[in-house]
Protein 1
Amino acid sequence: MELLLGEDWTVEPAGGTTGEAYIAWTGEQKLFLKRNSSPFLAVLSAEGIVPKLLWTKRLENGDVITAQRWVHGRELSASDMERSDVARLLSKIHSSSELLDMFKRIGNEPLTPSTMIENLNTRMLETGTSYSLFHEAIQYLVSSYQEVKAPSMVVCHCDINHNNWMINSHNELYLIDWDGATVADPAFDLGLLLYEYIPTDKWEAWLHHYGFPLTTNLKHRMHWYVVSHALDHALYYIHKGNEKQTLSWTEYLCQLLYGVKKE
């Protein structure tokens, strides 16, 4: 990476799960570099959703390195997620026809409820789990999935954790880490965000800033996606052998289905 920039630059890993991100600096200049980042980073940059894309270079081995302007700011805290500008930026993302067109051009297949059920059933078989709660969750998803019809499919980030939201010193907000994004029901993102961060009595006010009313249909769709997400994570941590996280996600799944923790 130093050879790409020049000998005056210092490059260090930026952390993260993929190990493909780096911080580079020389003097007063500082860059965020990433190997093989999202192919629609340019569109995200142009719309002001991520920090400005400065350049893209292809290496001899075929890898693509992108450089973005370094953000002098901070990650949002969990309590920050109630901010109205979070709702407005997510609405901007979900409303972006440019992002949606880009996804269609690269052949992205929409993530539908039937596909999600199929994937979860496969994961159940792979883990070999016989835990009744998981089968009850699948039964709930199957029995109600035909009612989960999105009025439109949009580009969803799919990982709206507060650590992926950044705000700079000029109060400009960004949503980063787009590696898991896909086309789906906007209720996917909305459900994960509202259930995790926003008290139920504030959902309507938050959605007012997003630009959509809290309808019975939206409530139903959000709950469906949050249940599927919880089951997916429980199965993931079973596969990883992480008992603590498995228990945590299993208890959450039980709360979603029955309103209580399962002993």
Note: The chain has a mean pLDDT of 91.
Protein 2
Amino acid sequence: MFKSDSFTPIEGVIRTPQLTDSIVLPENVEILGQKFDLNPIKGLLTTVQDTASSVAKSISSRPPLTFSLANKSTESWLLTTYLDEDVRISRGGSGSVFVLIKEGSYLLN
């Protein structure tokens, strides 16, 4: 069983993703031995690229989201007692009790 009387606050962090602000297309691609010219669709991507650039700058400029997990509900423990090779009992800090029987045990027949 592990239980600590001292409580150290835990901090969670969700970092903002780093996105690219440009779309780079090659002049052509080869698929199954056939070349496709991509220059005609590059003009169509200008609007998409401008939007992607704006979204990337907006998201990437945000600071990381931090939050504290400093409360007693984050503390837990589990005590396991092995009765024999087939049965064990586990007791949790919140009052939970689990009786576990090994798969294939004679007790399950």
Note: The two ends are 32 Å apart (CA to CA).
Protein 3
Amino acid sequence: MADLRFERTEKMIQFAFLDLLKTTPYEKISIAKLARVSMVDRTTFYAHFDNLSELADTLIENALAPFVAAFLESKEQKMKRNFDSYTFFSHELVDHLLSNRSQIETVRELPLGANSFDHRLRKLFTETYTTFLKLPETDFTIFLFVNLAMANFDFILKNSRVPSKKELQLGLKRMESFLK
């Protein structure tokens, strides 16, 4: 059974880190400063995380978890033939994104290169589309779908809704006219 005090302290450290990131660049956050802000001592911080990178990674994993769940659900739907390739962003996922927008936007800003939120989300989209479309990840179609998914994600965060299929079709027609 999990120790609730341990879990509560870990969450407190995570929330303090997110709050600190709103005013302080990641590179300027020290464990001492985070410990002070989260009202724990450094020893307590190290009981939960080895370093700030591990803490950042935990936040990214938590932010990506609903995507992983949505993709698994989509995979199950595809097996049942109830799959719509455009609707990865289920109502539950969209609600989660909108309810946690500030936290997600903060996590997206973490400068972690290949371990960053956006990089890892792109990788999830790539893996999902290569599986569903049965195309190699180097196929240009995969790049288009991944970028469309990232654009949907950005659109949802900015406009608080999923773009409709009609909006997608209109956007693609406009793009096509520019390519002529």
Note: Residues 80 and 93 are 20 Å apart (CA to CA).
Protein 4
Amino acid sequence: MSEGSKKVGMIILCIIIPPLAVFIRRGCALVFWVNIVLWILGWIPGVIHALWVVLKRDP
């Protein structure tokens, strides 16, 4: 798969199940648990956080 199609797939996953997208990207780190809490508090904060994590460029 090309890099563009992977990114589109991750964006769709961010919208459907935000914690899963964060888990795939970062593993079981603190950012995953933050996303779980945000997702429980409200779907939209979880989606925004997941998009931020997935689209952020790693150093």
Note: Helices lie at 3-16, 18-26, 30-41, 43-55.
